[in-house]
Amino acid sequence: MKNIRIIPQLNIKGPNVVKPVNTEGLKVVGNPRDLAMRYYQEGADEIIYLDVVASLYQRNLDFDQLKKVCAGIFIPFTVGGGIRSLDDINNALRAGADKIAINTYAVNNPNFISRAIKIFGSQCIVLFVEAKRTGNKKWEAYTDGGREKTGVDAIEWIKKAIKLGVGEILITSVDHDGRRQGYEIDLMKEIASFSPVPVIAHGGAGTPEMIKEVILEGRADAVSASSILHYGEYSLKEIKRHLAGNNINVRLI
Amino acid sequence: MRKNSNKIIIIDYGLGNLHSIKKAVDYFTKDWTVSGDPAAVSSARAVILPGVGAFAAGMKGLAERGLIGALREFAGKGKPILGVCLGAQMLLSEGHEFGAHQGLNIIKGKVVKFPELAKGVKIPHIGWNKIYPAKDSWQGTILQDVPAKSDMYFVHSYILQPEDKKNIFTLTNYEGYEFCSAVREENVYGCQFHPEKSGEIGLRIIKNFIYNCHCERSNKELY
């Protein structure tokens, strides 16, 4: 069995890491540089860095800040937030990103995905989807940190983006994010049932056991977590040890 | 002799994870520069060819800057090159991403799509995976002091397929499929994985390349 990646997610607003609480208020949880370094040293497999307001305000993420956060950290960064041109992608890569997460802009401009892949390769482009349940096995794609409806069926959108060539899917459950009551297993399972590319599950981690569940039952290839790590309740080591104890392969350092 | 003749040149061909590789090299030495100038390549001590991107776009970037001849000549002199990911793939003769495209042909071989593996096996191959020596040992190479079966970070849909088995430097097994994860021909190395993104152990490879790649011999020959 391959290694399952455990990926801390930094939601960025201005100079801070924030945590949306049910997509309403944003709570400041710390400094991106300190948190990223801590996770690197604790054995994070990658780091996700998402500017959660860039799209909303139609601006770019702060590439200089990204550069500072990445300094001295030698694991992959997936970066997103306000990416809407090939230049934006180039700037993010040059600031230290390895993979680019695209959400809002691609929903309205699917061809942007094809264009980006032609230049940067599939492995560089991650489709970021915020899914909110609308019925039995039905989810709608949201954007801008779960604020904006798109009217687009999340599952259909993911299938389309896979055809366009995205290399990975980062999926957040809008309903579960920030509640720490467990991942939305149904959603993850549904995507795993058809996705030929790796799926990173996000939203709802409250304990290492919940992370285990989304791997075993939700069949996630990677899991991303924020609150559970940011507040120091569990360390990456503890989480990985718990997973290893349940016969899940993880990279231990 | 040019001013930058003893520098490590990180090739800029308009795409790629330059920042990551710069950061990793800079961790060990300040004696490096980023350049897309063929003259800089010719007078370099060693060259790093980074890569994130599609094969054709990468080769186009090299061609537009007149770097294809410069890199081939550099390798022909026995000087050290480290290709990473797409940079490693471009060292081979031919790439098959969005059609067939000529590579640098420094190491004979092809770059092909991962074959269809068992149902449920994901491509791209993304994440940490173990590398092990194709031959007995990798002492005396850039992998010196890297324990066999160290985890390295991979992200790719295409694999290196050198024509001659002797160019297979390391192997990796992804869900039961063994593939060549690094190639070598003398002082030319190509890693499909990202040493610059593989934590402390990956950094050891960068360090070995910088300090231990037998550049001295080549420099003497040239100057």
UniProtKB/TrEMBL annotation, chain A:
GO molecular function, one term: lyase activity
UniProt EC number: 4.3.2.10
UniProt keyword annotations, A-Z: Amino-acid biosynthesis, Histidine biosynthesis, Lyase
Origin superkingdom: Bacteria
SUPFAM superfamilies, sorted: Ribulose-phoshate binding barrel
One GO BP annotation of this record: L-histidine biosynthetic process
Listed pathway(s): Amino-acid biosynthesis; L-histidine biosynthesis; L-histidine from 5-phospho-alpha-D-ribose 1-diphosphate: step 5/9
InterPro entries recorded: Aldolase_TIM, His_biosynth, HisF, IGPS_HisA/HisF, RibuloseP-bd_barrel
Catalytic activity: 5-[(5-phospho-1-deoxy-D-ribulos-1-ylimino)methylamino]-1-(5-phospho-beta-D-ribosyl)imidazole-4-carboxamide + L-glutamine = D-erythro-1-(imidazol-4-yl)glycerol 3-phosphate + 5-amino-1-(5-phospho-beta-D-ribosyl)imidazole-4-carboxamide + L-glutamate + H(+)
Family designation: Belongs to the HisA/HisF family.
Subunit structure: Heterodimer of HisH and HisF.
Described function: IGPS catalyzes the conversion of PRFAR and glutamine to IGP, AICAR and glutamate. The HisF subunit catalyzes the cyclization activity that produces IGP and AICAR from PRFAR using the ammonia provided by the HisH subunit.
Protein's UniProt name: imidazole glycerol-phosphate synthase
Organism: Candidatus Falkowbacteria bacterium CG10_big_fil_rev_8_21_14_0_10_43_10
Phylogenetic classification of the source organism: Bacteria, Candidatus Falkowiibacteriota
Automatic annotation (TrEMBL), chain B:
Keywords: Amino-acid biosynthesis, Cytoplasm, Glutamine amidotransferase, Histidine biosynthesis, Hydrolase, Lyase
An example molecular function term from Gene Ontology annotations: imidazoleglycerol-phosphate synthase activity
Residue ranges constituting the Glutamine amidotransferase domain according to the UniProt record: 10-212
Active site positions: 85 (nucleophile), 194, 196
Catalytic activity: 5-[(5-phospho-1-deoxy-D-ribulos-1-ylimino)methylamino]-1-(5-phospho-beta-D-ribosyl)imidazole-4-carboxamide + L-glutamine = D-erythro-1-(imidazol-4-yl)glycerol 3-phosphate + 5-amino-1-(5-phospho-beta-D-ribosyl)imidazole-4-carboxamide + L-glutamate + H(+); L-glutamine + H2O = L-glutamate + NH4(+)
Localization in the cell: Cytoplasm
CDD domains: GATase1_IGP_Synthase
This enzyme's EC code(s): 4.3.2.10, 3.5.1.2
GO biological process: L-histidine biosynthetic process
Pathway in which the depicted protein is active: Amino-acid biosynthesis; L-histidine biosynthesis; L-histidine from 5-phospho-alpha-D-ribose 1-diphosphate: step 5/9
GO cellular component annotations of the record: cytoplasm
Quaternary structure and partners: Heterodimer of HisH and HisF.
PANTHER family: IMIDAZOLE GLYCEROL PHOSPHATE SYNTHASE SUBUNIT HISH
NCBIfam families linked: IMP_synth_hisH (TIGR01855)
Function of the molecule: IGPS catalyzes the conversion of PRFAR and glutamine to IGP, AICAR and glutamate. The HisH subunit catalyzes the hydrolysis of glutamine to glutamate and ammonia as part of the synthesis of IGP and AICAR. The resulting ammonia molecule is channeled to the active site of HisF.
Protein name in UniProt: Imidazole glycerol phosphate synthase subunit HisH
Species: Candidatus Falkowbacteria bacterium CG10_big_fil_rev_8_21_14_0_10_43_10
Species classification: Bacteria, Candidatus Falkowiibacteriota
Name of encoding gene: hisH
